[in-house]
Give the backbone structure.
Amino acid sequence: MKWNGFIPMSNKQKFGWADITVILVLLSVLYLTAHFGEGMQVPFTAQHEPSISLDPSMLPYYAGRSLLRMFIAFGASLLFTFIYGRIAAYNRTAEKIMIPAIDILQSVPVLGFLSATVLMFMALFPGSLLGVEFASIFAIFTGQVWNMTFSFYHAVKSIPRPLAEAADIQRLSGWSRFTKLEVPYSMIGLVWNSMMSFGGGWFFLAASESISVLNQDIQLPGIGSYMAMAADHGNIPAIIYSIITMIIMIILVDQLFWRPIVAWSQKFKNEQTEANEVPKSWAFNILKRAHFIQYIQQQISTFLHDTKIKIQKKSRTIHWPQPPAIVSKGITWLIWAIVLGFVSIYVYQAVYEIVQLSWHELLDVLVLGLLTAFRVFVSTLLAVIWTVPVGVMIGLNPKFSRIAQPIIQVLASFPANMAFPLFIILYLKFGISMNIGSIPLMMLGTQWYILFNVIAGAMAIPSDLKEASTILGLTRWQYWKKLILPSIFPFLITGCITASGGAWNASIVSEIVSWKTDVLEAPGLGSYIAQATTHGDWPQIIWGIIVMCIMVVVLNRLMWRKLYAISEKKFKLD
Amino acid sequence: MKNTLIKLQQICKGYDLPNGTHMNVLEDIDLNIHEGEFVSILGPSGSGKSTLLRIIAGLIPPTRGKVLYNGQTIEGTNPGVGMVFQSFALFPWLTVLENVKLGLENKPWTEAEKMRKALSIIDMVGLDGFEGAYPKELSGGMKQRVGIGRALVMEPDILLMDEPFSALDVLTAENLKRDLLELWTEKKIPTKAIIMVTHSIEEAVYMSDRAIILSRDPACVTADISIRMPHWRDKQDSAFSSLVDRIYSILTKKREPQQQEHIEEQKRKMEKVPEVYAGALTGFIELIEDLGNSVDLYKLAEQLNLTLEDFLPIVEAAQMLGFATIHHGDIALTDTGAEFAIARVLDRKEIFRTQVVTHVPMMEKITWILESKSNNKMAREFFLEVFEKHYGSEEAEHQLDIIIDWGRYAELFAYNEQAKYLYLEQDASNPLTDM
């Protein structure tokens, strides 16, 4: 019998420098996690508020704390994705509720809920900063999780029938099915969506580390708080330090975490032939060269497998009694009853709170909502105007796009709210009103989604169509009208949907900004919610959020979905 | 008689149609599979061969009836089967070894035992040296070897194969068939029976001991032919080709009882039309004329390099429209068919129109509906809904496409693809007058 090269034990390769590097990196990561994690549960009272030092030497520590938050939120998102997605994919009844639910949740502005969740978590962990810590993580989580869950759910639903049947015939257990079929099949989409989510997560991190609830400023040690503190003090060097730190952090995470994962995940491509161009990563190459990793992995999986078999052999003799149908049905009904009970209690309470507002104020908020809707629309439109020519230029020129893509990626991940102070200084200097000034602030975070999509659309134009246009002698205008615009249209719409969703979220932080003691404010739903949160005015918070949710969902259904359907039908290149 | 391994009792499989009626795909299938048998299941496309195989595997439940394995009714996946898929169904992210080991996932063995077993099977199916390769690195034939290995490693009593060779090129398929037959006839594998779904009559006669032939709409067993020639069989042998001919004539025979049915009832039932576009049919009839008005079906299919799935509908359509008749595996043009073959383009359309109107009652209805409307127009959606009531949604699309294609070729009506409606052409110069 032949033992082959893929089994590392027989393969007497030496323990090399790659192994040493990986071990050292692992050790340091372990230490750092413990170090940063320690700071999470310091006591927290009104007197004992943690203060942020603007000393640049503290930046690595703050960056580490922020990073830890991001990864915890990401891990929670993954866990949620797998559980939620799997239930939705296999349980027909649950699916009918669960899928529309996350569809609404993903279009709802998460930041509006921040204050509510902060108070809830603070109540859960009284006297400890852990509650605020969880609230921040929860905010990042809610910003990341929905599209990951969607992607996993869709992948599981679209597993090709032969593969599913093969798994059935092989009688794979639920766990094997999950690890051998469902996760691998969804891997490519999941990695891609995770990357997008993680990039978007920085924004929520920066927004949630430093917030004011109930007239109380809470600042978690982290890079977002550092920036907020620097803005409060008007300390321009500190602002620049934090921006640089942020950029370094984004690049490091990209190089050390995402690139290797993308390179590794290529083997999960569901294709029957070899691809020409494969994403590469230097960090992944080192990991691959570290043989001890494969060795340990092999050993552990063999051990786990054998243990499982042994336990199964023993437990095979035991027959667990099945609960009678009535009992399990009863439990299902009970759960439903409890859920319904809680829902009605909270709906009643929310209505009770809202009733305290005058009719006048209720209507006012609707008008504010329209103002913000207008700003969101203008910011999306402006973004389209500049990204279409630039995106097409980048997309049609492969050389250019290879240089531009990574730069755009960093810019897109950079949390827009950390660049706000620079803009505010300009606004103060030139006396620009926030009515207009808040629009560029919204664009700052959302334009990248459109740019990405336009580039992707331009790259997808088949070269024979381009050649045909050249031969037909189309003028520049005809070329754009007949080829470029129709082919990027579906991509453009996808980008706009994401961008306008992001702009709603951004409105909460970009319609009201402060610099030292100056507060710049534009009337709008975003600033309304932000102020209500600061003052802890519950009726206002609840009504503001409800109006925003309704507006976003209605706009999505009435406008974006329709446009998307048209673009899918008419302009899809197959 | 040897031990009965699988027993099918009055298996029915059906779907509910939107109009509330029930359409049966399989009807009252009774079948016994014995130890030591290699059984082929043959039938026209859409006859539910693959559905039957999946019912045996326990992948889909029958609407009615029972599947017994060793005398026990199966619930869920059949514990005694392994399965080979047409599309290989390999997990692209697992290596050859890991794919094969997947078949042992549920066995209470240690990792080392599983490894040994998997490697020996890999050896057996001729994949030695490819253990660490991923499926995408392999050719089609190699991939199917992995598929076979994964099924065999479970040591199933019954090996189910769903058109295992149809995704492979001719030479590779031939090679793989021989290797599999060798494992089977020389008893190198503990498998007790093989059931193979195929659309190649020749493949069935070459490999199996018994051919089950299914009819269509709904599928019943029309013939159960035992093949007693010793292995290895010679395809040039006269006994071989006469058996192939015999199966061909069974498969192409029009069902007699249908013609005796009351004409009214037949109209109400809306007989399905074979899925063949007018262009292909015309080419086929021209070809028969070239070959001297009469030709052996089996040879013709071979010559055209068409599989049964593609070939049978053309033959059926030619029969249905009265262009050709089948006799003992030979196809011959009727007078109309011969006339059609040599006619010029416009005359040909004339003949086609006459034939379509006489033989496809639906055509008359469509033109009648269009004529009775004041603007002579009707949305595709309308006809689709009518069709859906009879055939189910997917089939309805196909049927309507064919009917529209035939009607356009016969110039009975015209069709606007963008706006999706059928209309009568009043003025050839401007078909869109009253839009």
Remarks:
- The domain at 69-208 of chain A is CATH 1.10.3720.10 (MetI-like fold).
- The radius of gyration of chain A is 26 Å.
- The interface with chain B takes residues 1-2, 4-6, 160, 162-163, 165-166, 168-173, 176, 180-181, 184, 187, 267-274, 302, 305-306, 309, 312-313, 316 of chain A (CB under 8 Å).
- Residues 30 and 486 of chain A are 51 Å apart (CA to CA).
